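Re: folding output
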Amino acid sequence: MNVKKYISELKRRKVFRSAISYLVIAWLIAQVFSVVLPAFNAPNNFMKTLIFILIIGFPISLVFAWVYELSPKGIKKIQKVDSEKLIAKQSAYQLNNDNKKLVVLPFQNISAENDSNYFSDGLTEEIIIRLSGIKELDIASRSTSMRYRDSELDIVSLGRELKARYLLQGTVRKHKDDLRISTELIDVEKDVELWAEIYRGKIADVFGIQEKVSKKIVKSLQLKLSSKEKVALSKRATINSEAYDANLRAREFLFSYTKSYLLLAIDLFQKAIDLDPKYATAYAGMAEACALLYETHDKNLKWIKKAEEASLKALIYDSASSEAYSALGLVYYNKNSPKEALIAAEKAISFDPDNFFAYWVRGRLYRVMGKDAEAAIDFKKVLELNGDFHSPYGDLQMAYKTLHDEQNLQDIIEKAALFYPSYLLRHPDDSRAHQFYAFTLKRLGRLEEAKKEMRKGIAQNPNDPIITYNAACFYALIDNKKAAIKNLKKAMENGFENYDYLKHDPDLDCLQKEKEFIALMQGK
């Protein structure tokens, strides 16, 4: 007989809890009746009968607890499980919680303002950044945290899935200049709330609130900080709340890729810089936005020059800025300096192993170098770190196509087909995503659905050069040469100037001998 097995099963079926509850209630009933019965001159054998009934009821309650459980849906029979597996699972969970892993869950936006999600996300990220410098604390990355924004798992299940001992969750209510932030720190292993706090103030108080929350976590978990960690915990990227707000707003549009959104992001980053000329994070964001604008929409050299200047300024004010190095990597990539670009991307990864953008830049560099196998590894890493950054789905398809890896190519196509509908429900205005989904559907042979998605993407940004260029590629691939030429002309009229790429793009192979295409390329 394995005693450990039976004790574990008794705990799982809550028999011990039921036994204790029954004994407490029985004792209370006996005490009450011992006082009440004499007042009503009840016969002596009545009390004896009551005690006998309570004694008989005890084993019956245990049998009931073993077989059934009370649930929100009523009484139901307990399912039998393999107790050895249960013990192993519980043991593993206990082992995983010997560490001090903390997950900062995305703060829930409960503001009446529809545009305030950027603020609650920014608050979450800032707290993660503050805590990530503490060696004694194992803090989950921002990308891991954001995956659980809409999770319906209970706290204990979340902790088990994330292998975390502690969870921080909260809400943000922002109305004009007023701010209300509630926070709660939970010990998952014990399923108890360690503390809960509500902070009220103005937008300018957000930095102080971030610092208070971080320090309270350190105190609750009894973490010992070095003098350097104490300084880092109190460090503020800016003390200007307007600059902070402009930087967060800019990041909403940074990776949407359309020309209008990138220009809007650049304007907002510039506003943040104007308000705080030493704001390293805003300079790094500006660098990324300008480099992306140059690469995808406008080959005016002023953008690549501005991107390089912004990267270097960011590094002046924060020499360990991973984001500044990854932006510099993209700058050198576009300046056709792959060696310098690779050094910058790897520097970015060394400062922040969770910088998805740095892996994306390095992956693209590997593709240029003919290292598609290494590129595929980096693109998969990007998807692990940021599931909403959808470019790698297309990048991986190109890498696997070059490698003639049909199995992985088909696998990523099928994954993309599952990803895009969900993504587009959350980001219906992402024109490039509609187009990438169209390419994926085309590869799966779902041509009519593909055409529909392509039309959606074009309709949302009909004058965007990269959108119309993608449309030209799509129509060329389905052998609609007339539509391909029409969109290619429009792309060039609206500023598409990457002629070297255009001439060698395999998607446009069917147009190479067309008179209109030859005429378009004349002198280019």
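--- second protein (sequence, then structure) ---
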Amino acid sequence: MNFLANINVLWGHILIDELARAGVREVVVSPGSRSTPLTLAANAHPDIRAINVIDERSAGFLALGLAMATERPVVLICTSGSAVSNYHPAISEARQSRVGLIVLSADRPEWLREAGAPQAMRQDQLFGPHTVWFHELAQPEADRLKLRYVRSTADKAVAMSERGPVHLNVSFRKPLEATEVPRDAPDGVRDLELGTPEVAGRADRQPWVRVLGSAQSDSAPVLRALANAERPLVTVGADWKARRWRPFVAWLKQLGYAVWAEAQSGVVGNVARLDASVQPDLVVHLGRAPIDWPAQRWMNSLECELIFVGPDDSHGLENPEHLASTWLRLRGLRPRRKDLEIIQNFQPQEEFSKNPKPKALESNKDTKEIPQFPHPNEQQRKIWISNETNHLTQTEGVPTFFDGAIHSALHALDPSTAIFVSSSMPFRDFENFGPKGRDVFVNRGLNGIDGVLSSAFGVAAARVPDGSRPGVVAVVGDVAFSHDASALLTARRAGISAIVVVINNGGGRIFEFLPVKGQAGFQEHFNTEPSIDLQALALAYGAGYARVTAQKPLENELQKRQDQPGIHLIEAVVDWESSIATRRSILEARAGLSSVRVATPVHAGSVRVAPWAITALHGFSGTRADWRVIEPYLGPIEALNLPGHEGKSGVETWDQAIEDLAQELRSQDRPVLIGYSMGGRLALGLASTYPELISGLVTIGARAGLPESERGARAQEDEARATAVERDLHGFMREWARLPLLNLRPAHPARAPGRVAHSGEGLASALRALGPARQPLYDVKLKVPALFVAGELDKVYCEAAREMAETLGAKAAVVANAGHAAHLDEPEATAAIISEFLEQL
């Protein structure tokens, strides 16, 4: 067959060929005209067994039996019209039984549908909820991007079929047979050549997109890929779920890898920008496709292997240019001890031992094996690219108050403050000028302005449910604000508190950047300045109001209002023309800077078994197992028992406990010490007395000590509890879990009676020797870096953490939606905060 006869024949060949590369071996075909390109391709493919069945209903069940017996997906091909409806019974059974059937239903082109053409019916979503994925393939077109799209869609269909049936609707316009047409005809293939990889496929019969991974959080495939490259780069897309990767990304940077992250991801990279100077030989992209324009252009221009890491769902592979060579379907990425051994003891793995090199998209003959680089222990692993960030985000020296300065002002916020950024220019300016490593939310999916304010208020309601202070700072344009201004009533009725910074820039003028500028109707329909009196609107809705025209006053307003309940509108007025000019000059100056540098090399053989060694102390009545919930995010944790817990002998005095703890730590290599509650107070005591034994301190729900006036009453209280726990351990534990101080949820692990692994006598001795009344007051600045963490719902300890940070020269952080035991309430969020601190040690 001449596959270049016309685009329909080529389209069918590519689709069937890629399905075969992805593992399909059986195709059940029912006769029909519209499906001719698919039928001919299946019949001609050397790796495909094509079985002809006249009745589509019978064909469906035959394919079902084939798929069950072979444990491989089976393809069904039929013509348009009612033929495809006859698959419904078999598709329903396949969905229930999780059997992989892939329906390729041929169809009329869209202009013949609902226009009276024979055998034309609505075939989209025909099987409703009985398929795990439906996709309408684009109209066949002789375009290399479109051919890559067909191949990647076929690979995705096979991957999705692991969970049940998939339906691809394929429309063809005539001619349907292998009939030659002029090369310049719309149905021809014009300048395509048989040797291009889009037509011929990747070399060595590999699928266009290899689908690997599992439903688990397994970092091994990513590390094998990184270890097999000389200039690897990890990129992180804007995704509200990307915060789960903070610990893993911090781990990679500790190992000496280069990381770029969009600001909206909440992840902090060590590569500030992507431009022509950044030329990796491998890109591993985490999460959603980039929304930053320069990053999009940079990624689309790459001629190296692209590995996309995403969840196991229908939106997992976000690769608009269809250049990805591998899709790793992973729920998450977590640093683990055994994974580091992949880097230290690397041997090339088959799945990443061959790779289309830069010219592979031009010709198959240029595909070649990756050179096998030396063992990392014999070669210094280094961050091969890095660049400076300060000039990107700080705008104090800029005389004009422009849009970017509004985002730069967000640096003044408490790091725990959630930020919601509107679509259009705001999220692009936030990328260039906003703070990194924050919890950032954006309606990124469809990039529209619909419901921006309401979405921001939803974030606020989740972050601070009682509305006692603003749960979010939202930065929205004036058009987006006017589109959803009624949300102010929603917030007032629901008792939601938030700060809304409205950029009053005459409508933003984003269309000034697009080709439509200057055309008829541009001024009337694209430059739509809302002209709203925001002060009057704030008064009508009972909201606070301020108007600013410079960055410093904006910072002052943000700091003043971030602890005040209610809705606060801050109108930031900028001139759109000067703002555009200022933004352009800053970005052009940045592009002209040659700030690329090679960072200090990191020898892989010298990397510790974990990026940081961690020792942890649990709280009163807790156990070492309590730390397991954050270990997946931070790596291995050496958990120690407190005196009197789990059979460990008690102590008589606070000082004795500190001495015993110091003795245990002397056998370790200056770990970071983390402590919760009683364990946090002991950790603080150790850090104050023996700072040389640790490299950093983290406390959760701890205090620096009681004033002398409160010690007597607290000593009596602890003695009463010690007596109670000696008398009835289980009864005491039930009552202890109900204490308002702990703020434990009904499903909290500490409420489970079966977790008691202690004796009443042991816990009583701990209370008598280590209660708050026995702890000295620590008020001298620490000699080690420290972070004091508290749960947002634990108001007393939130204030204590802030006071300790100020007094002891440390940092404080608040975990949203968490109580006293923040690490048990919100382990992922707590681990993310801790990992950011560890990253700076």
